[in-house]
Structure formats: C-alpha cells, structure tokens
Amino acid sequence: MTELYPLTPPGPSRRSTLRAAGGTLLLGLGLAGCRSAVSDSSSAPQGASAASQRGGVLNVAVNADFTPALLFAQSGQSLQHRLIYNTLTRYDDRLRPKPELAASWTYAKDGRSITLRLRDDVTFHNGRKFSADDVIFAVKNLQNPVCAAQLRSTAATVTGFEKRGDHELVLKLAHPVNNLFDLFEFMIITDSETVEDAVTGKKLIGTGPFKLKKWSPGSGLSLTRNDRYWQAGRPYLDGVELRVIAQADALISSLRSGQSQLSFDVPGKSLGVVKNDPRLAITNYDTGAGAVYLGVNTTVAPLNDRTVRQALAWAVDRDRLLDQTLGGYGLASAAPWPKSSPAFTEANRTHYTHNPGKARQLLKSAGHTKLELPLLHLALPGDTAIAESIQYDLKQVGVHVTLQPTDGATAQKKLISQGMPALWTMGHGFAQVQPSTLAVSAYPFNEAKNTSKYRSAEYTKVVQEAWTEPETDTAAANALHEKISSILLDEAFLIDLVVRGRVQVTADRVHGVTLNKFSYLNLDHAYLV
C-alpha cells in the first residue's frame, strides 16, 4: 500500500518569479515545478503560519467566461474547477501522486485493479456525505461520450467496481495503464444528484473550498467560503470573484489599480508593463502545462501532402514568436514536451528551426509556390497576436493565410468535432503529465480520432504500447516516447511552436496561490495581507 501522506499544504517549488522595482529575480531550473509561492524566496510553506490571515475576497481577472457545457473537458476555462470541486489525488513536482479525497491506495501487482481508501469526513456543499458511489459516478460520467472528456480513454479502462463499505472502492481495469493518476487528478468529483444543473450552470455543487454564490453569464463567477470544508481551518479567504475582462488594456488596468489581484491571462506582449509595477509580481509556472501550436487539417489539399506540412514547420520563427509575442515566457520547441517530461530531448525540441529557404524548397518540390489558406484562432488579444505572428512567417514562404477570429466555445466545439478549417492555432495541454496521456487523450493528438483527421496504424500501435507499458521499465518507456515524438515530427499534422507554463500575475498582497498539473487553481491556503 502507498504511504498515507498527511494532507498538509505543499511548500514552494522551483519556479521563475520576477518582482519589479529592486525586488528579487529567481531563475527557474526548468524542472517540474507545479506549485509556486508568489511572495518571495523567503516565503514560509503555504500552510498555517503566523503570516496567514483570514478574510477578504480575492478578485481574479479572466479573459473568458465560464462555459458549463465544457465542465468535464479540459479547456482554458478550467481554472475554477479546483475552487468548487476536489479530485481524488494530486501530483507533486515529480509526478508522484499524493492524497486528496483518496486517502491511500493499493495497486494490484498485475496492474489490473486499484483499491482506493476514501476520506470519510467529506460532505458536498448541499450537506450530502461523500462516498464510494460518488467516485463510481465520476468515472462513469467521464466514460460517457457526451461529456467530451479528454481522459475518456483512461476512464473507459475501468470495467468494474467493487464497493467495500462507503469509503473503500476497488476499480477493476480491462488492462494495465500507466496514466491512471492523471485521470484521478483531472476528474472532478461532482454531486451526482445535481449534475444536470451543473452542465447548464444552474448549480455547481462539489466538496471544494468554495461554493457557488452566483454565475452572471458574460460577467463571471462569484464564490463564497465553504464553512464545512474537510480541511480544517481552510480556506482563509471569504470568497473569490472571477471577473471576465476580455480586453488586454482593461485587464492590465484592473490589476494595476488593485481592482483585481490575480490573473493568468495577461498577453505576453503586455507583461513588460506589469514587470515595471512594484505592486505586481510575475510567476512563471515551468511545468509546460500548455503549448502553442499550429494545427493542420490533413484532409484539405495540399495539406494532405506531408512535404507541405513539413514546409510549414520550417517556416515559423519560434524564437521570434516566443520573444516578441509571448514576452519570453516559454520554451521554443518543435516537440510538445516540457523539460520536466521524461519524453523530452533537446534533439526533438530543435528538430525544426526557422529556415524559410528550406520551407520554400519543400513547397516547390511539392509543386507549390503560393498557397492561400484560412487560419482559425481565438478572438482574444494574446491569441490574435500569436496568429498574426504565424501569418507573417508563412507569408514569407508564399503561404498566405486569412485569419478567422473565433470565440472560445465555438473553437472548442470545432476542435472536438473535427470541424477545423485548413489551419488553426490554439494551445494544448497534457504533455506535462504521463507522456502516453497526450496521444490517448488530447484532441489534437488522439491516435483514434484527432482534430487533424490524421490516422496511422503505426501511430496507433506505438501509442497503445506506450499507454500500457509499466512505469517501472524506464528504458522501454523512453524508447516508445521517442517513437511517438518521431512520428509527430515527421508527419507534422500538428506543429508545436512554444511550450508554455501558466504565467501568473499577482498583487503583492496575495500569497499561497498554486495550480495543479491541469492548471486548476488551488486557493485552499491562499490569503491576503
């Protein structure tokens, strides 16, 4: 059985924090820092301390509203998940699972089952006791295709449930998988009795530190403290306001004026302004929880030609995109993996560099000197700037793209339904957890059905092998990761550009903010001074 870890808050991890006006510059080491103190290098661990203060409402500036229909899918709007809901486990900085609603667990030697021992002191916001039935419901809910959950493939490996009382549960698996704890950290535990109201935004009932007070469509979420939270004395905050501020100038003004104290949505080009404000700090989470990419619909001619797709990969100036558009926060990379991933190699990161001459040569060899194609992007300032940077680079090699700004909800639906045009640019996640998860769960990469409509028997075979390979066989796992990377780079149906972590901007009076591996905001131990 795994060790029963005490449920104390994590301390600060490796990170990059920039503080303006004579403050401290801490350079991250490029490792898997998933939690980060936002005060300074001398911060105490983020738990009970003399500095912790109860009370106050934290105002969070977001650039897009909550979308109830995407509640069970990973998207840019998943930030609020951990405020309302808990998960079974959470990873530490080295991808080691730690308890949350699951207090401990035992994995069968053959990898065909896992026994979960659940906390018995947890209640939902409506007063109902949490039990094994809620875990069964959560797994079955993600197995339902209607939920459009990226980790549905992993949830689907659970073929049976054996209850041993209200707080012990055996999950029986069709076959071993090495990303079960990815599922446990991704899967929010919702109240089964009100889930129909949850997906319409009427009720959001979980076991988390805050309760829904009000959702004002177009304006944001208002949350209030859960006084019956299972972590004694938490949260410190009385409430959280997630305010939708779509325009970059208005968002920055809100932070600088103190109307908002936290945001993850400041466009890269605007971060320079924030650095110069002594009341604000920038924290760069170096987990690689997201990546900017150029998606390619392989059924649209001439993009059905691999040579043309490779030409696009050589055409984009990743370093310029990173420096000028993203403010220098990220890692220029042709592969999806952050440095913290066991799949990362420097050779794959630099497989494609900026080489417009080679791009033109490849296009010419495929019979093209000029192409005209659409490029869909999110209609947000930061995403528009990324699309314009890509547009400029492609134009230099004779590929003229017409930008198609699109709202986030519509873009996500197109992503899921394979409804994208010839080209699109968005961000993807799932490279920051177990490498196999990317290719079995993320819509742009899914071996069975991806947004690019790319299919390959070889790709499917390698991905399935990587997914079921025991974690203990490191050499075999790394060899399979390299095969996946090679296929992604050679086929170029999705062209990675910059691996990014979340860039957090906070007022200097905010402490104790963390994110989980899926960028769910954790404010259990956050407080204002």
Keywords:
alpha+beta; nine-stranded mixed sheet
Can you summarize this structure?
The chain is of the alpha+beta class. It is 27% helix and 22% strand.
Can you give a write-up of this model?
- The structure is a single chain.
- 27% of the residues lie in helices and 22% in strands.
- It contains 16 helices and 25 strands.
- Mean pLDDT is 88; it is low at 1-48.
SSE arrangement:
Elements: E1 16-19, E2 25-26, E3 57-62, H1 81-84, E4 89-91, E5 97-99, E6 102-107, E7 113-118, H2 132-143, H3 152-156, E8 158-163, E9 168-173, H4 180-186, H5 195-198, E10 210-216, E11 220-225, E12 239-244, H6 248-257, E13 262-263, H7 271-275, E14 280-284, E15 290-296, H8 306-315, H9 318-325, E16 331-332, H10 346-349, H11 356-365, E17 371-378, H12 381-395, E18 399-406, H13 408-417, E19 423-428, H14 435-441, H15 457-468, H16 474-491, E20 494-500, E21 503-507, E22 510-511, E23 514-515, E24 521-522, E25 527-528
Parallel strand pairs: 3-12, 3-13, 17-18, 17-19
Antiparallel strand pairs: 1-2, 1-14, 4-5, 6-7, 7-9, 8-9, 10-11, 11-12, 13-21, 14-21, 15-19, 15-20, 16-20, 22-25, 23-24
Helix pairs in contact: 8-11, 14-15, 15-16
